[in-house]
Amino acid sequence: MSAIGTREALLDAAEHVFARDGFAGASLREIMREAGANPAAVHYHFGGKDGLLEAVLDRVVDPITDRRLELLDQLRVSADGAAIPVRDLVDAFIRPDFEAIERLQSRGAARARLVGHAYGQPNEVVSAIIARQFDPVGSAYFPEFFRALPHIDPDVLRWRLRWCVVGVIVMLFSNADDPAGPIDRHDRDASQRRAVDFVTAGLEAGVT
């Protein structure tokens, strides 16, 4: 197997094992066995388990980030200097997650849980990775949400963005494979609209 082939095999295997067993419970031995790689391969390509985890999450999250920024750029062009409607911002933020879940599920059952584990139960290593990954998204989107909702205190809005938006995203990934879960396999668009409606209402709610 070539070096590139070995690296991709390790990422595929790690994605599966991390999603199934969680980060703390995942065994490097199991990942190497599934990838058909020797014990030195993980250290050669990734420096160890933490580096492998970071590469796995980057492979999943980077396309989500790129898509979010692409959709936001489209909204800015359409708005032509005006404030972007809250619902449009929420849709642009959440839609890439539905797209990512579909990609992950096409690679095997339970793959979507990977992001649910990362965002829902982060350890110190994962928290640092998530903070780095989210920085460009937060820097781009938060000012647009603040502009769209000028009557909401920025601290309140940050709280809502964290717990309302991110909370929904964690729930979507963590329960994506559940037939009774939040995503209707026969009508993903309807599920996305329901999620966008819910988050938009939460962000726009009056302050008491």
Your description of this structure?
- By secondary structure, this protein is mainly alpha-helical.
- The chain has one domain: Tetracycline Repressor, domain 2 (Orthogonal Bundle), CATH 1.10.357.10.
- It contains 9 helices and no strands.
- It has helices spanning 3-25, 28-35, 40-46, 49-79, 86-106, 113-120, 124-148, 154-174, 188-204.
What's the CATH class, please?
Mainly Alpha
Structural class assignment: mainly alpha
Oligomer: single chain
Radius of gyration: 18 Å
Cα end-to-end separation: 61 Å
SSE order in H/E notation? Answer: HHHHHHHHH
The total tally of domains equals 1
Ordered list of secondary-structure elements with their pairings:
Elements: H1 3-25, H2 28-35, H3 40-46, H4 49-79, H5 86-106, H6 113-120, H7 124-148, H8 154-174, H9 188-204
Key traits:
single chain, 208 residues, mainly alpha, Tetracycline Repressor, domain 2
Brief overview, please?
By secondary structure, this protein is mainly α. The chain has helices at residues 3-25, 28-35, 40-46, 49-79, 86-106, 113-120, 124-148, 154-174, 188-204.
